[in-house]
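Chapter review: from sequence to fold.
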Amino acid sequence: MSMRVVPAHDAPVPRRTRMTGLERREQLVDIGRGLFAERGVDGTTVEEVAARSGVSKPVVYEHFGGKEGLYAVVVDRETTVLLAGMTQALQQGGHPREMLERAALAFLDYVEEHTDGFRILVRDSPVGRSTGSFASLISDIASQVEYLLAAEFKERGFDPRYAPLYSQMLVGMVALAGQWWLEVRQPAKAQVAAHMVNLVWNGLTGLDLVPHTVASVAVTPDRQPDR
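The token string follows.
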């Protein structure tokens, strides 16, 4: 029995699966996120977002109203992810030093796992600026740290009115260190967190020679975290 060979030009062409509106929106967000991280919001155009997505410019406008709308969605998502991680770390309770360690590690986890997102947050709203998305985010995180410091201040006889100031300094230090670590990635993340807490907890005059995270040391009745 002879077999009929179908010419290539007669072969059926697979139909492209059409994206749903939600799928297209997510695609645009992902591509916009990469471009904003690479070039910043000012260096990114709607034309580039559309071209990389394989759509026309009106599609981008239909979903987001323009570049600024897309950027706002990306920033809002990144802010939510980072704030959720920090909140979870602080809400686990435990010794205050361990809570600080978890918060520092949560911040560094975000830097490591959401590098593009962190670049977006700090590129167009650097830590040193008093306004903008990242400055607002840092303020939100500091507000959560404030209650922890206020309790410690009261227990140690310090004036709790200064807790907001110290919380801003603490979170600002972690944010700047995270921005630096984003580029160098040395030393290892756990070591960075240990050194952060070493400075915060002990101060320059009481620094441990070899800092470590107390969470990595078994806490027994004979060995409690340093206070």
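Two observations follow directly from the output. Residues 115 and 182 are 7 Å apart (CA to CA). The longest helix spans residues 67-91.
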